[in-house]
Design goal:
This protein is of the alpha/beta class. It is built from five helices and six strands; from the N terminus they run βαβαβαβαββα. Helix 1 (16-28) packs across helix 5. The protein has helices at residues 16-28, 48-53, 70-79, 101-114, 138-164, and strands at 5-10, 37-42, 56-62, 90-97, 118-119, 130-133. It is 40% helix and 19% strand. Strands 1, 2, 3, 4, 5 and 6 form a six-stranded parallel beta sheet that branches.
C-alpha cells in the first residue's frame, strides 16, 4: 500500500533546529488518520529520489548571518537540476537562531517559490513564520507540531489529487 510521504529536511549543530524538525515531523505523522510516512533527514543525506517521492516537504536551518546553512543551500543548488520535483508540493520553512531567523525563513521560502512549490505557511511583515529564538520552548514545539499537522494534511491532499490524475507520489510502504 502506498502511503503519502512527508520529508522533513534540516541542518543543526546545537540540536535546536533538529528539535523543531522532530516536533514538525510528529505533527505531520498525525495527518491522514496517521496513514502517512514521515522521513526526517539531514540536508546532506537528502537525495533527488527523496524529494521526488515526497508529497510534502519541510526545510529548516539554523541562522548564519540571517541566512540558511551552507548544507541546506548546497541541497537547493543541486536541486536546480530537478526543481520540477517541487512543483505545487506543499512546503514549509523553519529556522532557529539568536537573530535573523525571520530572514533565514524568508530566504528558504524565496527558493521554494522559485521552484514553484506551494508554501502552506508564508512569513510576512506580521508573521515571521516558524522562526524560533534560541532553544525551542514548549510553545515553539507546539507551534511546530501544529505546522507539521497542517503540512501533513496538505501532503495527503496533494497525494490524493495526484492519485486522481493517475500519478503516484510518496511510495512509502
Amino acid at each position: 500500500m502506498n502511503r503519502p510521504r512527508i520529508l522533513v529536511v534540516y541542518t543543526s549543530r546545537s540540536g535546536n533546529t533538529e528539535a523543531l524538525a522532530r516536533a514538525l515531523a510528529e505533527g505531520a505523522a498525525e495527518a491522514g488518520n496517521r496513514n502517512v510516512e514521515v522521513v526526517v533527514k539531514k540536508a546532506r543525506d537528502v537525495s533527488r529520489q527523496d524529494v521526488e517521492e515526497a508529497c510534502a516537504l519541510a526545510f529548516g536551518s539554523p541562522t548564519y548571518y540571517s541566512y540558511m546553512s551552507g548544507e541546506l543551500k548546497a541541497l537547493f543548488d543541486d536541486a536546480l537540476l530537478y526543481k520540477d520535483s517541487f512543483y505545487s508540493k506543499p512546503t514549509v520553512a523553519f529556522a532557529t537562531g539568536n537573530g535573523g531567523q525571520s530572514k533565514c525563513v524568508e530566504s528558504i521560502e524565496a527558493i521554494l517559490e522559485l521552484f514553484e512549490a506551494m508554501l502552506i505557511q508564508k512569513s510576512d511583515i506580521l508573521s515571521p513564520g516558524l522562526a524560533v529564538q534560541g532553544k525551542p520552548d514548549e510553545g515553539a514545539l507546539r507551534q511546530a507540531k501544529a505546522v507539521g499537522r497542517k503540512l501533513g494534511d496538505a501532503g495527503v491532499e496533494y497525494a490524493c489529487r495526484k492519485g486522481s490524475e493517475g500519478i503516484i507520489v510518496g511510495k512509502g510502504k
